[in-house]
Design goal:
alpha+beta, 4 domains, disordered N terminus, OB fold (Dihydrolipoamide Acetyltransferase, E2P), 20 strands, 19% helix, 407 residues, five-stranded mixed beta barrel
């Protein structure tokens, strides 16, 4: 019978070294903590849950609403794929880590939005809905807001009369469309994401806008008419731009309704009068001779003239003397007795014989009166300059009228 040899550990030192190595490796194992993000390999997957192997030291499960991933990165994982998840619990009823793609994806998605804003990248935003303040959009899987003030001229709701219901309808018509936007505000804590189509447009068209300068004359086409002016498109092909001609820059005479002066698709020449980022302001009247430069050749103070009443308000009436020159008859100059409403003395659309009481070519003002001139003993012969004084309150209201005209 053969003798069994005795097993002898030849080198205790080696044994200690091996054990020490194992202990060191144990120390290096990173035990997951609640709230930490772990990476694992998918070992099982279904519509309701996904199981992950976490570096061979633990198994975890993602299930129910925690499967939803705002970043979209872990939405369609297959067996063998790697995914990141947030630890919710260290041990569930099955002894597994309870994990969440939702929280990990949420953090990843917002980190990405901050990066996009920081680097100024242009992204796609899908329009979901609208309210009176703007558009509710989705960037990746995060909901955000695109204010009306941040829309480009192309998408700005040009609604006659500023009707809020019609503005909302116009905004809602953009549902399901994709706009190119820049991210201008991100706040994960407040779940706030604000984007701007205008900023994205500015970035993309800086080179085109730089080709133009104040004073340039452009050939364009009327693309829209609103209460406050008209939009003109100019340029060619992909280099086309759009600018606004304010109602005060359409013509030298007073215009109450731009639609009576220009129409959509009219071809027109205009001069660039300002460029502010993407906002281009144009003028049609500055390409025409200012009729007020020669008004004193046509009209004199104390001259009697025929004029048609165009419009009235609480301080007086706007009167058309000819196609180019309009004057203002203050309420105090419409009747010898005190009245509270100009309509007590005149009718809109009717023609009356007025007396010119002041002419101010520089400020495009001409004062009128229906009251007869008061004769004085020491009266001097009137000149064409504005020597006639009107009541202080009349001057104030006339200034207000001019300011209102230019709004």
């Amino acid at each position: 019978m053969a003798k069994r040899k005795k097993l002898v550990l030849k080198d205790d030192t080696n044994k200690d070294s091996l054990m020490g190595k194992l202990l060191e490796e144990q120390k290096e194992l990173k035990i997951p903590e609640v709230g930490s993000i772990v990476e694992g390999k998918v070992i099982a997957s279904s519509k309701t849950e996904v199981h992950l192997d976490i570096d061979g030291i633990a198994c975890g499960v993602v299930r129910g609403p925690e499967l939803f991933d705002e970043s979209g990165e872990f939405a369609n994982l297959k067996i063998g794929d790697k995914g990141q998840a947030t630890v919710l619990e260290l041990e569930n009823e099955y002894g597994e880590l309870e994990l969440s793609f939702r929280q990990a994806g949420h953090r990843k998605a917002w980190d990405e939005l901050e990066r996009l804003m920081r680097e100024g990248e242009i992204v796609d935003a899908t329009v979901l809905d609208a309210n009176k303040g703007g558009l509710i959009v989705r960037v990746s899987r995060i909901s955000g807001f695109l204010p009306v003030s941040q829309l480009t001229v192309e998408h700005y709701p040009r609604v006659e009369g500023g009707n809020k219901t019609k503005i909302l309808e116009r905004l809602q018509s953009y549902a399901n469309q994709i706009f190119k936007v820049a991210i201008i505000d991100v706040n994960e804590a407040e779940n706030k994401l604000i984007v701007s189509e205008k900023s994205a447009w500015e970035d993309q068209h800086k080179a085109i806008i730089s080709k133009y300068k104040v004073g340039d004359v452009v050939d364009g086409r009327i693309t829209g008419v609103v209460d406050f002016g008209a939009f003109i498109e100019f340029g060619e092909g992909d280099d086309r731009l759009e600018g606004l001609v304010h109602i005060s820059e359409l013509a030298w005479q007073r215009i109450d309704n731009p639609r009576n002066f220009v129409k959509v698709n009219d071809k027109i020449k205009a001069q660039i009068i300002s460029i502010d980022d993407s906002k281009i302001s144009l003028s049609i009247r500055r390409l025409q001779k200012d009729p007020w430069t020669e008004v004193v050749k046509k009209y004199k103070v104390e001259q009697k003239v025929k004029g048609r009443v165009l419009k009235t308000n609480h301080f007086g009436a706007f009167v058309e003397l000819d196609h180019d020159i309009h004057g203002l008859a203050h309420i105090s100059e419409l009747c010898d007795k005190k009245i509270n409403d100009p309509k007590e003395a005149i009718t809109i659309g009717d023609e009356y014989e007025f007396r010119i009481i002041s002419i101010d070519p520089q400020n495009h003002r001409l004062g009128l009166s229906l009251k007869p001139k008061k004769e004085t003993k020491d009266e001097e012969k009137p000149t064409t300059e504005d020597k006639t004084e009107i009541k202080p309150e009349a001057k104030t209201e006339e200034t207000k009228a001019e300011a209102e005209t230019k709004k």
